[in-house]
Amino acid sequence: MSDHGCIHLNNFKAAKGIQPYKVIHSYFVTSTSTEARIRKAVSCLCHTCKTYKDRLHSCLHCIFFGCYVKGHIQEHAKTKKHFLAVDLCYGNILCFQCGDYVYDRELLGVAKAQWSESAKSLSFGEFYRAWEPTQIEAELLRKHPRRRRVVENSTIGLRGLINLGSTCFMNCIVQALIHTPLLRDYFLADRHHCPQPTRCLVCEVSHLFQEFYSGSKAPLTLHKLLHLIWTHARHLAGYEQQDAHEFFIATLDVLHRHCEAAPILIKDNPHHCNCIIDQIFTGGLQSDVVCQACNGVSTTIDPFWDISLDLGPAASASGSDSSGPPTSLLDCLERFTRAEHLGSSAKIKCSNCQTYQESTKQLTMKQLPIVASFHLKRFEHSSIQDKKISTFISFPEQLDMTPFMSHRRNGNNNSAMIDGLPKNGEDMAFSDNRYSLFAVINHEGSLETGHYTAFIRQQRDQWFKCDDHLITRARLKDVLTSEGYLLFYHKQILEYGRNTKV
């Protein structure tokens, strides 16, 4: 970056002032208001290729967004002779005539003031999410010059894990958590401070992130992590093989409890935790029970960390199979959110008509988490036998959860509407419910002699297979054709300002 000023930027400021930069920075870099955060979530797309990735820039002369990596902002500058652009990640000014990012003390003051205002107006979670990972990385590099930069095609962050004796279930969960983007950014920013580090799982996970991103390639051993899990989740103690899903939920639970024990975030709602675990993994599941006599609806909303999906044939109210087994993740979600008739043997007292009546029950997504975790229930346990379901279930690289949202699934029957919008003022047109796959955990083999492995996404499109201490490159085809036990999706667009917790 040039620090000697730029005559082209000075001429622009003399003609048009600093307001164009101030507006762009306010709306699309810091996003200092709810309106700005909503607009950023739905509008920040390259006007040429319609994507939000690849270092998006905004033209300083006109309303145009273009990605730098694919050259679309450069094409715009050449065609329109608009030679100044704003990097929407950092807020820096790019001058195409100088061929460099340029320094301007006055605009730097504007940027600092708006970041400060943003920090005052947002909760920690909202402010933190407003930073792109590369921007956090740049800040860390300034504070810690020896920290290694994660660049394209880098394998930094990839480390094998030693199997301590049937601990592949733990190793694959750790790999998935280490490669959860927002969790990585949080821990690498050294946000956690704890009065009891020797007993705190959050401190140990923070240490693991530092080790993974230190640049070393030697496999790690997780003795201390395993001991802490045994201490705080005693049902998992012992050297026998454990269920990876059970370990995942137990780990989130302990992390959540230890975050509460050492609060580092201001809780804007005293009834709900605002820790990093809940901010990333917690969603809201809506249950609507409809009385078949009076159509009265009883609605409850419960938090969830993941969704467990049945793979067997769907059963009717009488207990007989009503449809075959699902063949895809979308089939599973369709069935999970389908209204179910509870039958005469499960009558519920209706709060409206005050009598026991047959009813239907429907589950839908009221609030989506940043990371959507799906558990495909491949292990069946019954009094007769235990078995594994090895049916292939296809799952997509990109997933849109909109069809399974409460306002779409139940036709807004249970939402108060004002002028066609929900009563709480949330315009569903602003919601973007698209997710990208970033980790898949597989169980290979039988129920008795199985082995867990994980596929993880490194950066945008590089996939690796983690088999304990072995890390090998993988193709996307290998990932999408794997058996799949736990699937992890990350929200593509974070809608700043929507810190509503169920």
UniProtKB/TrEMBL annotation:
Its EC number is 3.4.19.12. Keywords: Hydrolase, Metal-binding, Nucleus, Protease, Thiol protease, Transcription, Transcription regulation, Ubl conjugation pathway, Zinc, Zinc-finger. GO terms for molecular function: cysteine-type deubiquitinase activity; zinc ion binding. It comes from the Eukaryota. It is found in: Nucleus. One of its GO terms (cellular component) is SAGA-type complex. It catalyses: Thiol-dependent hydrolysis of ester, thioester, amide, peptide and isopeptide bonds formed by the C-terminal Gly of ubiquitin (a 76-residue protein attached to proteins as an intracellular targeting signal). Pfam families: UCH, zf-UBP. Residues 159-492 form the USP domain. Its main location: nucleus. Residues 4-121 form the UBP-type domain. One of its GO terms (biological process) is protein deubiquitination. Belongs to the peptidase C19 family. UBP8 subfamily. PANTHER family: UBIQUITIN CARBOXYL-TERMINAL HYDROLASE, UBIQUITIN CARBOXYL-TERMINAL HYDROLASE 22. This is Ubiquitin carboxyl-terminal hydrolase. It comes from Apis cerana cerana.
